[in-house]
Design goal:
The complex is a heterodimer of chains A (348) and B (307). Chain A is mainly α and 348 residues long. In chain A, 73% of the residues lie in helices and 0% in strands. Chain A contains 13 helices and no strands. The N terminus and C terminus of chain A are likely disordered. In chain B, α2 crosses α3 and α6 packs across α8. In chain B, strands 1-2 form a two-stranded antiparallel sheet. Chain B is built from eleven helices and two strands. Chain B has one domain: ABC transporter involved in vitamin B12 uptake, BtuC (Orthogonal Bundle). Chain B has 307 residues and is an all-alpha fold. The chains are: A mainly alpha (348), B mainly alpha (307). Chains A and B meet through α5, α6, α9, α11 and α13 of A and α3, α9 and α11 of B.
């Protein structure tokens, strides 16, 4: 995937076609399974965009972690690293944020909230630190190490909510509700929390960083052509990949904090319905461009929100949406592979 | 108790070993298939659907075919089109989670309980199964366990004693050189991935037909990814994979021993242990064997020489 110029619309067309392919296949599958595709897709549309409440409290709410994690994934990708462990870093961030919320609950909200974010950023970064060290010192593929740590993180959450962080009554596998001061404000009349604004700000910051700063340029160079960057630009490509991986872990951790402090108000097992993997599709569909990730994140948020409505109203299993997501990713991969003349480089 | 522990370890290890041996073959050819989890899940569902009407043996066959089909989709994108293997594999698994969930709920209702299925009975090897300690574990197991153990020498022979295996390993170490030497890189890689998918499908089927007796959504619970960890821990060798799979099985089975002894060790620690161990092994604490040179690179590593 080469970095397109401002006027190159081909990637956008490809993404739109990939999405259309996914939806057409969904409709065909629904018809084959004996459902009324029009009714099901209609329910999906209403569930995602049918009302202001649906758009904010379902679509944008669901989009928030996808955008945030997608941004992190894209940052690592553009630095030349594949972070398949966002799910684990999300949980590490969620644990850290929950812990911090209980420590800081007595502080006023304007202090408590940023501090829980800081804790989550640290938690996520810490979780990806092992893969970074393994990659730098021993040349271990980060794909494998980040993936493995997902399972450790899931077990750790399970341990926490049945052990040290379990709610006082000790009945349910979850933490006590976090103090009010650590909770994010909501958009009045909806369930959408301020974390969505954080996602937007992060996207803007990353767009600026990548496009307008020397550091961003070096990062992209290191990711796109490491050997050239090292020889010509005297950029330590491995170091940039490591830093990008650390940052992406921290960002995934932040997503965990936003979910705890904006949606669940407590630490649970299965807090993430696979955000870390869906976010890969989000980043890919947007070709790693920060502002595009906002758009594709909202799109996937709409798909997943609509899938819930489709199950309630038309009796179509909501998991069907994962097939659509998979088709979209595969279609983009196929289209990109067809459209390139030179061997592609991971990401960018 | 030791007899029971060993039998449990082998039982838990069997599906992991089946999938891991296939993935050793894939990765020796330079392809890492994260769609393995999806292939396993598809195998599990296919086994459940076919075993209901056709019996357990038909279920096992259907599982292999389903795993093969999922791997074919992965191969088409990752090898045929030369797309990024990691992203393609992740997408394939995501799609398999969705598709198996949707088909399962359509076929058996959304209550979440699967049908009770006929299971594969243990086949005792006459005489041998009465051996003390290891008899039950090694010689009184259902068919997939024997298949898993047979796959180890079979994969070793194919990889290291056949021309095809040498071509595959060449493609996995240095695709450009292999191609120059006349190896049809994509074709050998594709066949390796399909073989891996077939075994992963069998692994999913054995989970249903030899262990659980029914299907549940996402029932593979990351075992496909565990199989990839086993490949790494087993240093990309079939025999290493055997040892690593048995180790994973033993660690999981240890949990039951501790419970039986009344020791209050949080079970989550047993869940973490194998992964932490694999990371440790990756750090080179126990060896200097490295991954196949082309692993995960696909077309990127075969063209201009960049990366």
């Amino acid at each position: 995937m080469s970095a397109p110029s401002t006027f190159d619309l081909r990637p956008l067309t490809t993404s739109a076609l990939a999405l259309a392919a996914g939806l057409v296949l969904l409709a065909a599958g629904l018809a084959a399974a004996g459902h009324d595709p029009a009714a099901a897709l209609g329910a999906m549309w209403r569930g995602a965009f049918g009302s202001w409440y649906a758009f904010t409290s379902a679509t944008l709410l669901r989009a928030t972690p996808l955008i945030v994690i997608g941004l992190g994934f894209a940052l690592a990708l553009r630095g030349g690293a594949l972070n398949i462990g966002a799910e684990g870093q999300f949980y590490a961030g969620a644990i850290a944020a929950t812990w911090a919320a209980f420590q800081l609950g007595a502080l006023p909200a304007p202090l408590a909230i940023p501090l829980t974010w800081l804790a989550a950023l640290a938690g996520g970064a810490l979780w990806v630190l092992v893969p970074v060290v393994l990659k730098r010192r021993f040349g271990v593929l980060e794909v494998i190490s980040t993936l493995l740590l997902n399972f450790v993180a899931e077990a750790l959450v399970s341990l926490m909510v049945q052990g040290p962080m379990q709610e006082p009554a000790g009945i349910y596998p979850q933490s006590a509700p976090i103090p009010a001061a650590a909770r994010l404000p909501l958009l009045p009349g909806t369930r959408l929390h301020a974390g969505f604004l954080v996602a937007l700000a992060l996207a803007a910051a990353m767009a600026f960083l990548l496009a307008r700063t020397v550091w961003g340029f070096r990062l992209r160079a290191a990711g796109a052509a490491p050997r050239a960057a090292e020889l010509i630009g005297r950029v330590d490509a491995g170091r940039f990949a490591g830093v990008a991986l650390l940052a992406s872990g921290a960002i995934a951790g932040l997503a965990g904090a936003l979910e705890v402090s904006g949606v669940s108000y407590a630490l649970y097992q299965n807090l993430s319905p696979g955000y870390g993997f869906t976010a890969i599709a989000v980043a890919l569909l947007a070709r790693g461009h920060p502002l595009g990730i906002v758009a594709s994140g909202i799109l996937f948020g709409a798909l997943e929100a609509g899938a819930g409505a489709m199950q309630r109203e038309a009796g179509v299993p909501s998991v069907t949406v994962y097939v659509v997501e998979a088709v979209v990713i595969l279609a983009v991969l196929l289209a990109d592979a067809r459209g390139r003349s030179t061997p592609a480089v991971a990401g960018a | 108790m030791i007899t029971g522990f060993l039998a449990a370890a082998v039982r838990i290890a069997s599906p992991l070993l089946l999938a891991a041996v296939g993935e050793v073959v894939s990765q020796r050819g330079g392809t890492i298939n994260l769609g393995l989890e999806g292939a396993m899940l598809a195998g599990a569902l296919a086994a459940a659907l076919a075993a209901g009407g056709g019996g357990a043996e038909a279920g096992l066959l259907a599982a292999a075919v389903a795993g093969l089909a999922v791997a074919a989709i992965f191969a088409l994108v990752a090898i045929g089109a030369g797309a990024d293997q990691i992203i393609a594999g992740t997408a394939v698994t995501l799609g398999a989670v969705g598709l198996t969930g949707a088909v399962f709920r359509t076929a058996f209702g959304s209550a979440g309980t699967g049908p009770t299925l006929p299971m594969l009975e243990p086949l005792a090897v006459p005489g041998l199964w009465r051996m003390p300690l290891i008899g039950e574990a090694l010689f009184r197991q259902p068919l997939p366990t024997y298949l898993a153990f047979a796959a180890v020498p079979a994969a070793w022979w194919v990889l290291f004693r056949t021309r095809w295996g040498r071509a595959l390993r060449a493609a996995g170490e240095d695709a450009a050189s292999a191609r120059a030497a006349g190896v049809p890189v994509r074709r050998v890689r594709g066949v390796a991935v399909l073989a891996g998918g077939l075994l992963a499908g069998l692994a999913g089927g054995s989970l249903v037909l030899a262990q659980v007796g029914t299907f549940a959504e996402k029932m593979t619970a990351g075992r496909g990814f565990v199989a990839i960890a086993i490949v790494v821990l087993g240093r990309w060798h079939p025999v290493g994979a055997l040892a690593a799979a048995l180790l994973f099985g033993a660690l999981q089975a240890l949990q039951f021993v501790f419970q039986a002894m009344g020791l209050d060790v949080p079970y989550q620690l047993f869940l973490m242990l194998p992964y932490l161990l694999t990371l440790l092994a990756l750090a080179g604490a126990v060896g200097r064997v490295r991954a196949p040179g082309e692993l995960g690179r696909g077309e990127r590593g075969t063209g201009s020489g960049e990366r």
